Amino acid sequence: MWPLWPLAALLALSQALPFEQKGFWDFTLDDGLPMLNDEEASGADTTSGIPDLDSLPPTYSAMCPFGCHCHLRVVQCSDLGLKIVPKEISPDTTLLDLQNNDISEIRKDDFKGLQHLYALVLVNNKISKIHEKAFSPLRKLQKLYISKNHLVEIPPNLPSSLVELRIHDNRIRKVPKGVFSGLRSMNCIEMGGNPLENSGFEPGAFDGLKLNYLRISEAKLTGIPKDLPETLNELHLDHNKIQAIELEDLLRYSKLYRLGLGHNQIRMIENGSLSFLPTLRELHLDNNKLSRVPAGLPDLKLLQVVYLHTNNITKVGVNDFCPVGFGVKRAYYNGISLFSNPVPYWEVQPATFRCVTDRLAIQFGNYKK
């Protein structure tokens, strides 16, 4: 029964999106937002996720590429040293797993006849070239995982049915205008680990997209991109070279629930910058160069988690986290991390954390130079 695991993983994946991905299948784990249900967290339509397998034609059980495992419309051809996409793939296949091979090119007819394909896994190959019509037959494709390859551009003519694109750890330097044109169902793009600079995003590159989740971590960004979809609920820009958050950097991202800016070089967050994020629940600013707690946190009524560890913060004021007065904050903090900062913790007043659920939610720690 072991070939069922890729399909089981996709079932889990369709429910939520991750904050930190450590391995290929780790993003199937939901670290969740406690204040959201699954539909809100993922932004996905629960009626259009996993295909209705019972409505598909009977399985062509006699068709299975040599060396692959085929069961219940899942074709698993991973870790076989394949140089090309195999033939004899059943037309009713819904999940095709080709990860961990040596495929270098996707040709025009590689997926011909696979009109029922729901998920395509091409992770960890050597793909550097994709024919412009290679994805044309995939009219029902919703999930495309093509990370850890040698791509220098985002593939053209992606299927209009696509919901999720994982293309991190490639060699992409440019996101041209129109590359996502017509992808009205797309709600998740993971494109970290590419050598993308701010200038690599052409104006209008994300026009028309209504994304829920975007990750551009481990790139070469020096500032927050200003032309990303305003529909975003999660934006992850960790492990970049961002140095400051200026006043209007977050102006168009008022729907964010979670913002990841850890492991950057941020020294300054301009006063008022965070006021554009009224629905923010979680803020990651750890491993930066901040010298004080960012202004404006008490005004974020829904904020529950703040990571500020491993900065240069020397003082924590009594009103840095909580608003003055009662009944103003709608959700209490359940996580504040301040360890690895040069703060004399014995000088921090207990009232500083009056809007925290309990003292175990506060993480102090020793500071080592």
Automatic annotation (TrEMBL):
GO terms for biological process: articular cartilage development; bone development. May be involved in collagen fiber assembly. Belongs to the small leucine-rich proteoglycan (SLRP) family. SLRP class I subfamily. Keywords: Disulfide bond, Extracellular matrix, Glycoprotein, Leucine-rich repeat, Proteoglycan, Repeat, Secreted, Signal. The gene is BGN. One of its GO terms (cellular component) is extracellular space. GO terms for molecular function: cytokine binding; extracellular matrix binding; glycosaminoglycan binding. This is Biglycan. SUPFAM superfamilies: L domain-like (SSF52058). Pfam families: LRR_8, LRRNT. SMART domains: LRR_BAC (SM00364), LRR_TYP (SM00369), LRRNT (SM00013). Disulfide bonds join 64-70, 68-77, 322-355. Residues 63-95 form the LRRNT domain. It comes from the Eukaryota. It is found in: Secreted, Extracellular space, Extracellular matrix. Residues 1-16 form the signal peptide. Homodimer. Forms a ternary complex with MFAP2 and ELN.
